Automatic annotation (TrEMBL):
UniProt cross-references to Pfam families, sorted A to Z: ABC_tran
Name listed for the protein in its UniProt record: ABC-2 type transport system ATP-binding protein
Alphabetized UniProt keyword annotations: ATP-binding, Nucleotide-binding
PANTHER family recorded: ABC TRANSPORTER G FAMILY MEMBER 20 ISOFORM X1 (PTHR43038:SF3), ATP-BINDING CASSETTE, SUB-FAMILY H, MEMBER 1 (PTHR43038)
GO molecular function: ATP binding; ATP hydrolysis activity
Biological source species: Sphingobacterium wenxiniae
Boundaries of every ABC transporter domain copy: 1-236
Signal peptide from the UniProt entry: none
Length: 244
């Protein structure tokens, strides 16, 4: 059986005046895949993601996300994906339980569904004792894990994570990736941008963007073999030198 592609991009492009931020990128992402979208800051990762999640209009090319067109069906895309921004997305002045309730409503869940999801999420994350504390009082690592769980609240086909582990400690980063693995095992596609090259090792496949273009795309193992290096950081450095 052929694996289903839930993201298909063909020549997707974004220009700002005379500057091309995303330059004709072409790739596909399979259902249940953890797809790493790598590159240095300013490489065009976030701009590309904004087009894919339906909040920025492409200036060229085409893409389908969860079966919907990024040019004409942005609202349908938003209903079928989850999104976690690199800046913490929940409300500091609401409690844990209130944030879950609020976003459940945004995602169109019924009151019964919200109650059930809220109870399960709080239990799964072990937040029972602090469910009625303000989110602003939580450590960053807990905030990030909660934000990821809230992005999954409506059982989206795809979850987009933009630099999700920035600023958290190594132990929390590992715990966060365990949550990602679990979601992928259950069939959710994970599209994650990061500039931590060691995190590329956790992905099924990775693309590496340099100056708006995808310059490499394969499994971490095959990329390391291709560039004859032992780490994804070395792949990135070799690739950057070759382009220079």
């Amino acid at each position: 059986m052929k694996e289903e592609n839930v993201i298909i991009s063909k020549g997707l492009t974004k220009r700002f005046g005379g500057f091309t931020a995303v330059d004709a990128i072409t790739f596909e992402v399979k259902k249940g895949e953890i797809f790493g979208f790598l590159g240095a800051n300013g490489a065009g990762k976030t701009t590309a993601m904004k087009m894919l999640i339906g909040i920025s209009n492409p200036t060229g090319g085409e893409a389908m996300v969860a079966g919907f067109d990024v040019h004409t069906q942005q609202d349908a895309i938003k209903k079928n994906i989850g999104y976690m921004s690199q800046k913490f997305a929940l409300y500091d002045d609401l409690t844990v339980a209130e944030n879950i309730t609020f976003y459940g409503g945004i995602y169109g869940l019924s009151r019964k569904q919200i109650r059930e999801k809220r109870t399960k999420l709080i239990e799964t994350l072990g937040l029972g004792e602090i469910a009625h504390q303000l989110v602003g009082s939580l450590p960053l690592g807990w905030k990030q894990k909660l934000a990821f769980s809230v992005a999954m609240l409506h059982d989206p086909q795809i979850v987009f994570l933009d630099e999700p582990t920035g600023g958290v400690d190594p132990i929390t980063r590992r715990q966060f990736w365990e949550m990602i693995y679990k979601a992928a095992d259950e069939g959710t596609t994970i599209f994650v941008t990061t500039h931590y090259m060691d995190e590329a090792e956790y992905c099924h496949r990775v693309s590496i963007m340099v100056a708006g273009k995808i310059e490499a795309l394969d499994t971490p193992k095959k990329l390391k073999e291709q560039f004859e290096v032992s780490s994804m950081n070395d792949v990135f450095l070799r690739l950057a030198r070759n382009i220079e």
